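S.,

As promised, the adenosine-5'-triphosphate run. Input:
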Amino acid sequence: MVHSAIMEMEQVAHAVEVRGIRKAFGATQALAGVDLTLLPGRVHALLGANGCGKSTLVKVLAGYHVPDAGEIIFPATDGASHIAFVHQDLGLVATLSVAENLSLTAGFAIQGGRIDWDYEYFATGKLLRKYGVTCDPRTQVGDLGPTDQTMVAIVRALAILPEHGGILVLDEPTARLPAAEADRLIEMLQSLKARGVAILYISHRLEEVLKLADELTVLRDGRTVHHGEVAELDRKDLVRLIIGHDAATMDEDAPRPDRGSARAILEVSELSGYRVGGANLEVAGGELLGIAGLVGSGRSELGRLIFGLQRATSGKILLEGRDVTDMSVPQHVRAGIAYVPQDRLSGIFKGLSVAENAIVAELDSLVSGLTISEGRCNAAAGGVIRSFQVKSPDMSVPIETLSGGNQQKVVLGKWLRRDLRLLILDEPTQGIDVGARTDIFHIIRKVAAERNIAVLVMDSDLEILSEHCDRICIMAAGRIMNEFDGPGVPITTLNRAIYGH
Ligand SMILES: Nc1ncnc2c1ncn2[C@@H]1O[C@H](COP(=O)(O)OP(=O)(O)OP(=O)(O)O)[C@@H](O)[C@H]1O
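Predicted complex:
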Protein backbone atom coordinates (compact mmCIF):
# COMPACT_ATOMS: atom_id res chain seq x y z
CA MET A 1 0.00 0.00 0.00
CA VAL A 2 1.23 3.51 -0.79
CA HIS A 3 1.34 5.60 2.37
CA SER A 4 2.42 8.78 0.64
CA ALA A 5 0.30 11.81 1.30
CA ILE A 6 0.64 15.48 0.67
CA MET A 7 -0.78 16.96 3.83
CA GLU A 8 -1.68 20.53 4.40
CA MET A 9 -0.88 22.30 7.63
CA GLU A 10 -1.29 25.88 8.66
CA GLN A 11 1.04 28.26 10.47
CA VAL A 12 4.20 26.15 10.45
CA ALA A 13 7.63 27.60 9.87
CA HIS A 14 8.85 25.05 7.36
CA ALA A 15 8.48 25.39 3.59
CA VAL A 16 8.22 21.64 3.17
CA GLU A 17 8.78 18.65 5.39
CA VAL A 18 9.65 15.22 4.07
CA ARG A 19 9.10 12.31 6.47
CA GLY A 20 10.16 8.71 6.17
CA ILE A 21 10.28 8.59 2.36
CA ARG A 22 10.98 5.12 0.97
CA LYS A 23 11.38 4.21 -2.68
CA ALA A 24 12.60 0.96 -4.25
CA PHE A 25 13.32 0.10 -7.88
CA GLY A 26 13.10 -3.68 -8.00
CA ALA A 27 15.73 -4.94 -5.57
CA THR A 28 17.38 -1.51 -5.25
CA GLN A 29 16.24 0.40 -2.17
CA ALA A 30 17.00 3.91 -3.47
CA LEU A 31 15.46 5.67 -0.45
CA ALA A 32 15.11 3.84 2.83
CA GLY A 33 13.30 6.31 5.10
CA VAL A 34 14.58 9.84 4.47
CA ASP A 35 13.55 12.87 6.55
CA LEU A 36 14.27 16.43 5.45
CA THR A 37 12.89 19.85 6.34
CA LEU A 38 13.35 22.95 4.20
CA LEU A 39 13.00 26.33 5.90
CA PRO A 40 12.26 29.70 4.26
CA GLY A 41 15.38 31.80 3.56
CA ARG A 42 17.76 28.92 4.15
CA VAL A 43 19.89 26.79 1.84
CA HIS A 44 19.79 23.10 2.68
CA ALA A 45 22.49 21.06 0.96
CA LEU A 46 21.79 17.43 0.11
CA LEU A 47 25.04 15.48 -0.18
CA GLY A 48 26.11 11.92 -0.70
CA ALA A 49 28.08 9.54 -2.91
CA ASN A 50 26.92 8.56 -6.39
CA GLY A 51 23.78 6.47 -6.24
CA CYS A 52 22.91 7.32 -2.63
CA GLY A 53 19.43 8.53 -3.63
CA LYS A 54 19.68 12.34 -4.05
CA SER A 55 18.05 12.56 -7.49
CA THR A 56 15.42 10.01 -6.50
CA LEU A 57 14.43 12.24 -3.58
CA VAL A 58 14.23 15.24 -5.94
CA LYS A 59 12.04 13.23 -8.32
CA VAL A 60 9.78 12.22 -5.44
CA LEU A 61 9.44 15.90 -4.48
CA ALA A 62 8.66 16.75 -8.10
CA GLY A 63 5.92 14.11 -8.17
CA TYR A 64 7.74 12.15 -10.88
CA HIS A 65 8.18 9.12 -8.62
CA VAL A 66 5.43 8.01 -6.25
CA PRO A 67 7.13 7.00 -2.98
CA ASP A 68 6.43 3.56 -1.51
CA ALA A 69 5.96 5.15 1.90
CA GLY A 70 6.33 8.48 3.67
CA GLU A 71 4.81 11.93 3.66
CA ILE A 72 5.51 15.27 2.03
CA ILE A 73 3.98 18.05 4.08
CA PHE A 74 3.47 21.55 2.67
CA PRO A 75 2.26 24.34 4.95
CA ALA A 76 0.07 26.11 2.39
CA THR A 77 -2.92 24.71 0.55
CA ASP A 78 -1.32 25.37 -2.84
CA GLY A 79 2.12 24.31 -1.68
CA ALA A 80 2.77 21.93 -4.55
CA SER A 81 2.65 24.75 -7.09
CA HIS A 82 5.20 26.77 -5.12
CA ILE A 83 8.08 24.41 -5.71
CA ALA A 84 10.35 24.91 -8.70
CA PHE A 85 13.10 22.62 -10.02
CA VAL A 86 16.32 23.07 -11.94
CA HIS A 87 17.46 19.61 -13.03
CA GLN A 88 21.00 18.59 -14.01
CA ASP A 89 20.33 18.98 -17.75
CA LEU A 90 18.67 22.42 -17.20
CA GLY A 91 15.76 21.52 -19.51
CA LEU A 92 16.20 24.57 -21.78
CA VAL A 93 15.50 24.51 -25.52
CA ALA A 94 18.78 25.55 -27.16
CA THR A 95 17.18 26.68 -30.44
CA LEU A 96 14.71 29.06 -28.76
CA SER A 97 15.44 32.55 -27.42
CA VAL A 98 15.80 33.29 -23.71
CA ALA A 99 12.36 34.99 -23.73
CA GLU A 100 10.74 31.99 -25.43
CA ASN A 101 12.30 29.60 -22.95
CA LEU A 102 10.97 31.60 -20.02
CA SER A 103 7.50 31.91 -21.54
CA LEU A 104 7.25 28.18 -22.20
CA THR A 105 6.66 27.68 -18.48
CA ALA A 106 5.31 31.09 -17.39
CA GLY A 107 2.97 31.54 -20.41
CA PHE A 108 3.08 33.97 -23.37
CA ALA A 109 1.56 37.48 -23.24
CA ILE A 110 -1.27 37.59 -25.79
CA GLN A 111 -2.52 40.83 -27.31
CA GLY A 112 -5.25 40.84 -29.97
CA GLY A 113 -4.96 37.08 -30.47
CA ARG A 114 -1.17 37.19 -31.08
CA ILE A 115 1.90 36.88 -28.92
CA ASP A 116 2.97 40.37 -27.85
CA TRP A 117 6.72 40.00 -28.52
CA ASP A 118 7.59 43.58 -27.50
CA TYR A 119 6.09 42.92 -24.11
CA GLU A 120 7.71 39.45 -23.91
CA TYR A 121 11.20 40.90 -24.48
CA PHE A 122 10.56 43.82 -22.11
CA ALA A 123 9.22 41.59 -19.31
CA THR A 124 11.97 38.98 -19.73
CA GLY A 125 14.67 41.70 -19.70
CA LYS A 126 13.21 43.12 -16.48
CA LEU A 127 13.09 39.69 -14.86
CA LEU A 128 16.68 38.87 -15.86
CA ARG A 129 17.97 42.20 -14.53
CA LYS A 130 16.20 41.60 -11.22
CA TYR A 131 18.49 38.60 -10.68
CA GLY A 132 21.62 40.22 -12.12
CA VAL A 133 21.58 38.25 -15.40
CA THR A 134 22.86 40.44 -18.20
CA CYS A 135 22.05 38.47 -21.36
CA ASP A 136 19.72 39.76 -24.11
CA PRO A 137 16.23 38.16 -24.03
CA ARG A 138 16.40 37.75 -27.84
CA THR A 139 19.57 35.61 -27.73
CA GLN A 140 19.21 31.93 -28.59
CA VAL A 141 19.88 29.90 -25.46
CA GLY A 142 22.34 27.67 -27.36
CA ASP A 143 24.53 30.74 -28.00
CA LEU A 144 24.86 31.54 -24.28
CA GLY A 145 27.77 30.34 -22.18
CA PRO A 146 27.08 27.62 -19.58
CA THR A 147 26.87 30.08 -16.67
CA ASP A 148 24.27 32.26 -18.37
CA GLN A 149 22.35 29.14 -19.44
CA THR A 150 22.27 27.97 -15.83
CA MET A 151 21.17 31.39 -14.63
CA VAL A 152 18.39 31.51 -17.23
CA ALA A 153 17.20 28.08 -16.04
CA ILE A 154 17.13 29.38 -12.46
CA VAL A 155 15.30 32.59 -13.41
CA ARG A 156 12.79 30.48 -15.33
CA ALA A 157 12.22 28.35 -12.23
CA LEU A 158 11.92 31.45 -10.02
CA ALA A 159 9.34 32.98 -12.36
CA ILE A 160 6.77 30.45 -11.20
CA LEU A 161 7.42 31.09 -7.49
CA PRO A 162 5.52 33.73 -5.51
CA GLU A 163 7.12 37.13 -4.80
CA HIS A 164 8.07 35.87 -1.33
CA GLY A 165 8.77 32.33 -0.22
CA GLY A 166 8.47 29.24 -2.34
CA ILE A 167 10.89 26.35 -2.73
CA LEU A 168 13.71 26.06 -5.26
CA VAL A 169 15.36 22.67 -5.85
CA LEU A 170 18.71 22.70 -7.65
CA ASP A 171 20.24 19.39 -8.75
CA GLU A 172 23.98 19.99 -9.40
CA PRO A 173 23.54 23.41 -11.04
CA THR A 174 27.27 24.18 -11.14
CA ALA A 175 28.57 20.83 -12.39
CA ARG A 176 29.53 22.35 -15.77
CA LEU A 177 30.91 25.65 -14.51
CA PRO A 178 34.45 26.74 -13.63
CA ALA A 179 34.82 27.67 -9.97
CA ALA A 180 34.92 31.44 -10.54
CA GLU A 181 31.85 31.35 -12.77
CA ALA A 182 30.08 29.28 -10.15
CA ASP A 183 30.69 32.17 -7.73
CA ARG A 184 28.36 34.38 -9.81
CA LEU A 185 25.67 31.81 -9.42
CA ILE A 186 26.26 31.43 -5.71
CA GLU A 187 25.89 35.21 -5.23
CA MET A 188 22.59 35.04 -7.08
CA LEU A 189 21.39 32.21 -4.83
CA GLN A 190 22.52 34.09 -1.69
CA SER A 191 20.27 36.98 -2.71
CA LEU A 192 17.29 34.63 -2.88
CA LYS A 193 17.60 33.84 0.79
CA ALA A 194 16.50 37.39 1.63
CA ARG A 195 13.40 36.78 -0.49
CA GLY A 196 12.48 33.92 1.80
CA VAL A 197 13.02 31.17 -0.77
CA ALA A 198 13.78 27.76 0.74
CA ILE A 199 16.55 26.18 -1.34
CA LEU A 200 17.47 22.51 -1.64
CA TYR A 201 20.96 22.37 -3.13
CA ILE A 202 22.60 19.21 -4.49
CA SER A 203 26.28 19.36 -5.38
CA HIS A 204 29.45 17.29 -5.36
CA ARG A 205 31.47 20.52 -5.03
CA LEU A 206 32.16 20.83 -1.36
CA GLU A 207 33.66 24.36 -1.41
CA GLU A 208 30.37 25.63 -2.77
CA VAL A 209 28.41 23.86 -0.09
CA LEU A 210 30.61 25.40 2.60
CA LYS A 211 30.11 28.89 1.08
CA LEU A 212 26.41 28.72 0.40
CA ALA A 213 24.58 26.24 2.58
CA ASP A 214 23.19 26.86 6.06
CA GLU A 215 22.43 23.25 6.89
CA LEU A 216 23.01 19.88 5.29
CA THR A 217 21.68 16.37 5.08
CA VAL A 218 24.00 13.56 4.02
CA LEU A 219 22.57 10.37 2.53
CA ARG A 220 24.29 7.02 2.32
CA ASP A 221 22.57 4.06 0.64
CA GLY A 222 19.22 5.83 0.78
CA ARG A 223 19.41 6.67 4.49
CA THR A 224 20.11 9.93 6.30
CA VAL A 225 23.47 9.55 8.04
CA HIS A 226 23.87 13.18 9.12
CA HIS A 227 21.85 16.34 9.51
CA GLY A 228 23.21 19.56 10.98
CA GLU A 229 24.50 23.10 10.55
CA VAL A 230 27.22 23.72 7.96
CA ALA A 231 29.00 26.46 9.95
CA GLU A 232 30.44 23.85 12.31
CA LEU A 233 32.06 21.80 9.54
CA ASP A 234 35.07 21.99 7.23
CA ARG A 235 35.85 20.20 3.96
CA LYS A 236 37.42 17.20 5.68
CA ASP A 237 34.32 16.74 7.82
CA LEU A 238 32.13 16.75 4.70
CA VAL A 239 34.31 14.15 2.97
CA ARG A 240 34.18 11.93 6.03
CA LEU A 241 30.40 12.24 6.24
CA ILE A 242 29.94 11.44 2.54
CA ILE A 243 32.26 8.48 2.14
CA GLY A 244 32.35 7.29 5.72
CA HIS A 245 36.12 7.75 6.13
CA ASP A 246 38.89 10.20 5.15
CA ALA A 247 39.55 10.58 1.42
CA ALA A 248 42.43 8.56 0.05
CA THR A 249 45.34 10.90 -0.53
CA MET A 250 47.49 10.99 -3.63
CA ASP A 251 49.08 7.65 -4.19
CA GLU A 252 52.72 8.56 -3.62
CA ASP A 253 53.84 5.22 -5.04
CA ALA A 254 51.88 5.69 -8.25
CA PRO A 255 54.19 5.43 -11.24
CA ARG A 256 55.04 8.84 -12.70
CA PRO A 257 56.49 9.50 -16.12
CA ASP A 258 60.15 10.43 -16.36
CA ARG A 259 59.73 13.53 -18.49
CA GLY A 260 63.36 13.57 -19.52
CA SER A 261 63.20 10.20 -21.23
CA ALA A 262 59.50 9.75 -22.02
CA ARG A 263 58.76 10.12 -25.71
CA ALA A 264 55.96 12.47 -26.72
CA ILE A 265 52.88 10.56 -27.84
CA LEU A 266 50.99 13.71 -28.78
CA GLU A 267 52.60 16.77 -30.37
CA VAL A 268 50.43 19.75 -31.25
CA SER A 269 52.02 22.68 -33.06
CA GLU A 270 50.47 26.03 -33.97
CA LEU A 271 47.02 24.45 -34.02
CA SER A 272 44.15 26.79 -34.91
CA GLY A 273 40.40 26.40 -35.24
CA TYR A 274 37.33 28.47 -34.37
CA ARG A 275 38.46 29.60 -30.91
CA VAL A 276 41.89 27.99 -30.75
CA GLY A 277 44.63 30.14 -32.31
CA GLY A 278 48.16 28.78 -32.41
CA ALA A 279 48.17 26.20 -29.61
CA ASN A 280 51.37 24.24 -28.88
CA LEU A 281 51.74 21.31 -26.52
CA GLU A 282 53.27 17.87 -26.04
CA VAL A 283 52.08 14.97 -23.88
CA ALA A 284 54.33 12.01 -23.10
CA GLY A 285 53.34 8.40 -22.55
CA GLY A 286 52.10 7.84 -19.00
CA GLU A 287 51.70 11.58 -18.47
CA LEU A 288 48.53 13.34 -17.31
CA LEU A 289 48.47 16.86 -18.74
CA GLY A 290 45.75 19.16 -17.37
CA ILE A 291 44.33 22.08 -19.31
CA ALA A 292 42.71 24.89 -17.33
CA GLY A 293 41.10 28.07 -18.60
CA LEU A 294 37.92 30.09 -18.48
CA VAL A 295 34.85 29.19 -20.52
CA GLY A 296 35.63 30.43 -24.04
CA SER A 297 39.41 30.08 -23.61
CA GLY A 298 39.46 27.32 -26.22
CA ARG A 299 39.97 24.56 -23.63
CA SER A 300 37.21 22.21 -24.74
CA GLU A 301 37.65 23.04 -28.42
CA LEU A 302 41.28 21.94 -28.23
CA GLY A 303 40.10 18.43 -27.30
CA ARG A 304 37.52 18.38 -30.09
CA LEU A 305 40.12 19.53 -32.64
CA ILE A 306 42.57 16.81 -31.64
CA PHE A 307 39.85 14.16 -31.88
CA GLY A 308 38.66 15.45 -35.27
CA LEU A 309 35.20 16.57 -34.11
CA GLN A 310 36.13 20.03 -35.36
CA ARG A 311 38.35 20.84 -38.33
CA ALA A 312 41.67 22.52 -37.77
CA THR A 313 42.18 25.59 -39.99
CA SER A 314 45.97 25.37 -39.63
CA GLY A 315 48.68 23.69 -37.57
CA LYS A 316 49.69 20.08 -37.00
CA ILE A 317 48.72 17.20 -34.72
CA LEU A 318 51.18 14.31 -34.52
CA LEU A 319 50.40 11.01 -32.79
CA GLU A 320 53.66 9.12 -32.19
CA GLY A 321 55.16 11.11 -35.04
CA ARG A 322 52.33 10.35 -37.48
CA ASP A 323 50.33 13.29 -38.88
CA VAL A 324 46.68 12.87 -37.80
CA THR A 325 45.61 16.50 -38.32
CA ASP A 326 43.03 15.90 -41.04
CA MET A 327 41.82 12.48 -39.98
CA SER A 328 38.15 11.75 -39.38
CA VAL A 329 36.79 10.63 -36.01
CA PRO A 330 36.66 6.90 -36.97
CA GLN A 331 40.24 7.12 -38.20
CA HIS A 332 41.25 8.71 -34.89
CA VAL A 333 39.54 5.92 -32.97
CA ARG A 334 41.38 3.31 -35.06
CA ALA A 335 44.66 5.18 -34.46
CA GLY A 336 44.12 4.77 -30.68
CA ILE A 337 42.62 8.12 -29.62
CA ALA A 338 39.65 8.17 -27.26
CA TYR A 339 37.60 11.20 -26.31
CA VAL A 340 35.22 11.30 -23.34
CA PRO A 341 32.98 14.34 -23.80
CA GLN A 342 31.75 16.79 -21.21
CA ASP A 343 28.15 15.95 -21.86
CA ARG A 344 27.56 12.62 -20.16
CA LEU A 345 24.43 11.89 -22.19
CA SER A 346 26.33 11.97 -25.46
CA GLY A 347 28.62 9.22 -24.13
CA ILE A 348 25.92 6.70 -23.22
CA PHE A 349 23.53 4.64 -25.31
CA LYS A 350 20.11 4.87 -23.69
CA GLY A 351 18.03 1.71 -23.98
CA LEU A 352 21.17 -0.48 -23.96
CA SER A 353 22.16 -2.30 -20.80
CA VAL A 354 25.04 -1.40 -18.50
CA ALA A 355 26.98 -4.38 -19.95
CA GLU A 356 26.35 -3.31 -23.56
CA ASN A 357 27.42 0.23 -22.79
CA ALA A 358 30.55 -1.01 -21.04
CA ILE A 359 31.74 -3.00 -24.07
CA VAL A 360 30.45 -0.91 -26.94
CA ALA A 361 33.87 0.67 -27.59
CA GLU A 362 35.51 -2.75 -28.11
CA LEU A 363 32.73 -4.62 -29.91
CA ASP A 364 35.02 -5.32 -32.86
CA SER A 365 37.32 -7.41 -30.68
CA LEU A 366 34.47 -9.32 -28.97
CA VAL A 367 32.80 -10.54 -32.15
CA SER A 368 33.66 -14.11 -33.11
CA GLY A 369 32.36 -15.18 -36.49
CA LEU A 370 28.98 -13.55 -36.93
CA THR A 371 28.07 -13.58 -33.27
CA ILE A 372 29.16 -11.77 -30.16
CA SER A 373 30.64 -14.04 -27.53
CA GLU A 374 28.36 -13.53 -24.53
CA GLY A 375 30.88 -14.95 -22.07
CA ARG A 376 33.64 -12.62 -23.23
CA CYS A 377 31.23 -9.66 -23.25
CA ASN A 378 30.13 -10.36 -19.69
CA ALA A 379 33.73 -10.78 -18.53
CA ALA A 380 34.71 -7.48 -20.20
CA ALA A 381 31.69 -5.63 -18.79
CA GLY A 382 32.31 -7.16 -15.36
CA GLY A 383 35.87 -5.79 -15.52
CA VAL A 384 34.59 -2.22 -16.08
CA ILE A 385 32.01 -2.53 -13.32
CA ARG A 386 34.53 -3.90 -10.81
CA SER A 387 37.44 -1.59 -11.51
CA PHE A 388 35.28 1.55 -11.49
CA GLN A 389 33.08 0.32 -8.63
CA VAL A 390 29.93 0.99 -10.65
CA LYS A 391 26.87 0.77 -8.41
CA SER A 392 24.39 -1.30 -10.41
CA PRO A 393 22.00 -4.07 -9.29
CA ASP A 394 23.19 -6.20 -12.22
CA MET A 395 24.75 -5.53 -15.59
CA SER A 396 21.60 -6.26 -17.60
CA VAL A 397 19.65 -3.19 -16.42
CA PRO A 398 19.30 -0.21 -18.83
CA ILE A 399 22.12 2.29 -18.32
CA GLU A 400 19.68 5.17 -17.75
CA THR A 401 18.50 3.55 -14.52
CA LEU A 402 21.95 4.10 -12.95
CA SER A 403 22.63 7.32 -11.06
CA GLY A 404 24.33 10.05 -13.11
CA GLY A 405 27.76 9.52 -11.59
CA ASN A 406 27.64 5.77 -12.17
CA GLN A 407 26.74 6.29 -15.85
CA GLN A 408 29.85 8.48 -16.14
CA LYS A 409 32.02 5.73 -14.64
CA VAL A 410 30.80 3.25 -17.29
CA VAL A 411 31.64 5.74 -20.07
CA LEU A 412 35.17 6.19 -18.73
CA GLY A 413 35.65 2.49 -18.13
CA LYS A 414 34.66 1.41 -21.63
CA TRP A 415 37.29 3.66 -23.24
CA LEU A 416 40.06 2.59 -20.90
CA ARG A 417 39.66 -1.02 -22.06
CA ARG A 418 40.58 -0.14 -25.66
CA ASP A 419 44.07 -0.28 -27.10
CA LEU A 420 44.80 3.42 -26.62
CA ARG A 421 47.66 5.81 -27.32
CA LEU A 422 45.90 9.03 -26.30
CA LEU A 423 42.96 9.59 -23.94
CA ILE A 424 41.22 12.98 -24.00
CA LEU A 425 38.95 13.67 -21.03
CA ASP A 426 36.71 16.72 -21.00
CA GLU A 427 35.41 17.26 -17.43
CA PRO A 428 35.90 13.56 -16.58
CA THR A 429 34.61 13.62 -13.03
CA GLN A 430 31.69 15.97 -13.51
CA GLY A 431 28.97 14.68 -11.19
CA ILE A 432 31.27 12.07 -9.63
CA ASP A 433 31.48 12.04 -5.86
CA VAL A 434 34.56 13.04 -3.92
CA GLY A 435 35.60 9.50 -2.98
CA ALA A 436 35.11 7.98 -6.43
CA ARG A 437 37.00 10.86 -8.10
CA THR A 438 40.27 9.96 -6.43
CA ASP A 439 39.76 6.26 -7.23
CA ILE A 440 39.08 7.07 -10.89
CA PHE A 441 42.25 9.13 -11.25
CA HIS A 442 44.26 6.38 -9.59
CA ILE A 443 42.94 3.92 -12.15
CA ILE A 444 43.62 6.31 -15.05
CA ARG A 445 47.18 6.91 -13.83
CA LYS A 446 47.87 3.21 -13.38
CA VAL A 447 46.52 2.27 -16.81
CA ALA A 448 48.34 5.20 -18.46
CA ALA A 449 51.66 4.18 -16.89
CA GLU A 450 51.28 0.46 -17.61
CA ARG A 451 50.23 0.95 -21.23
CA ASN A 452 52.20 4.12 -22.01
CA ILE A 453 49.08 6.18 -22.78
CA ALA A 454 49.15 9.99 -22.94
CA VAL A 455 46.24 11.62 -21.11
CA LEU A 456 44.87 15.10 -21.72
CA VAL A 457 42.45 16.33 -19.04
CA MET A 458 40.32 19.46 -19.49
CA ASP A 459 38.69 20.35 -16.22
CA SER A 460 37.06 23.39 -14.67
CA ASP A 461 37.72 22.00 -11.20
CA LEU A 462 41.20 23.27 -10.39
CA GLU A 463 41.50 21.07 -7.32
CA ILE A 464 41.18 17.99 -9.50
CA LEU A 465 43.86 19.24 -11.92
CA SER A 466 46.17 20.28 -9.10
CA GLU A 467 45.87 17.00 -7.28
CA HIS A 468 46.16 14.61 -10.20
CA CYS A 469 48.05 16.13 -13.15
CA ASP A 470 51.79 15.94 -13.82
CA ARG A 471 51.67 19.27 -15.64
CA ILE A 472 48.98 21.93 -15.97
CA CYS A 473 48.72 24.29 -18.95
CA ILE A 474 46.65 27.47 -18.76
CA MET A 475 44.73 28.41 -21.88
CA ALA A 476 43.50 31.89 -22.70
CA ALA A 477 42.39 33.38 -26.02
CA GLY A 478 42.96 30.05 -27.75
CA ARG A 479 46.64 29.67 -26.77
CA ILE A 480 48.63 27.93 -24.07
CA MET A 481 49.86 30.82 -21.92
CA ASN A 482 51.52 29.18 -18.89
CA GLU A 483 52.69 25.79 -17.80
CA PHE A 484 53.15 24.49 -14.24
CA ASP A 485 54.74 21.28 -13.02
CA GLY A 486 52.46 19.25 -10.75
CA PRO A 487 51.04 17.63 -8.90
CA GLY A 488 50.20 20.00 -6.06
CA VAL A 489 50.24 23.36 -7.89
CA PRO A 490 48.52 25.80 -5.47
CA ILE A 491 45.00 26.77 -6.59
CA THR A 492 45.81 30.44 -6.02
CA THR A 493 48.72 30.15 -8.50
CA LEU A 494 46.45 28.58 -11.11
CA ASN A 495 43.72 31.18 -10.57
CA ARG A 496 46.23 34.03 -10.84
CA ALA A 497 47.41 32.63 -14.17
CA ILE A 498 43.88 32.03 -15.47
CA TYR A 499 42.67 35.54 -14.65
CA GLY A 500 45.95 37.23 -15.49
CA HIS A 501 45.35 37.11 -19.25
N1 LIG B 1 14.35 4.59 -12.76
C1 LIG B 1 15.17 3.80 -12.07
N2 LIG B 1 15.13 2.45 -12.23
C2 LIG B 1 15.94 1.63 -11.53
N3 LIG B 1 16.86 2.08 -10.62
C3 LIG B 1 16.94 3.40 -10.41
C4 LIG B 1 16.11 4.32 -11.13
N4 LIG B 1 16.43 5.58 -10.71
C5 LIG B 1 17.40 5.45 -9.78
N5 LIG B 1 17.70 4.13 -9.59
C6 LIG B 1 18.69 3.59 -8.65
O1 LIG B 1 18.47 4.19 -7.39
C7 LIG B 1 19.72 4.48 -6.74
C8 LIG B 1 19.77 5.97 -6.39
O2 LIG B 1 19.95 6.71 -7.60
P1 LIG B 1 19.97 8.31 -7.64
O3 LIG B 1 19.96 8.72 -9.08
O4 LIG B 1 18.91 8.84 -6.76
O5 LIG B 1 21.41 8.61 -6.99
P2 LIG B 1 22.16 10.02 -6.78
O6 LIG B 1 22.47 10.13 -5.33
O7 LIG B 1 21.36 11.11 -7.39
O8 LIG B 1 23.52 9.79 -7.58
P3 LIG B 1 24.49 10.79 -8.45
O9 LIG B 1 25.28 11.58 -7.47
O10 LIG B 1 25.36 9.81 -9.19
O11 LIG B 1 23.61 11.61 -9.37
C9 LIG B 1 20.80 4.03 -7.69
O12 LIG B 1 21.23 2.75 -7.30
C10 LIG B 1 20.12 3.97 -9.04
O13 LIG B 1 20.72 2.99 -9.86
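Residues 1-12 have pLDDT under 50 and may be disordered. The pocket of adenosine-5'-triphosphate is lined by residues 25, 28, 30, 48, 50-56, 391, 401-406, 431, 433 (CB under 6 Å).

- D.
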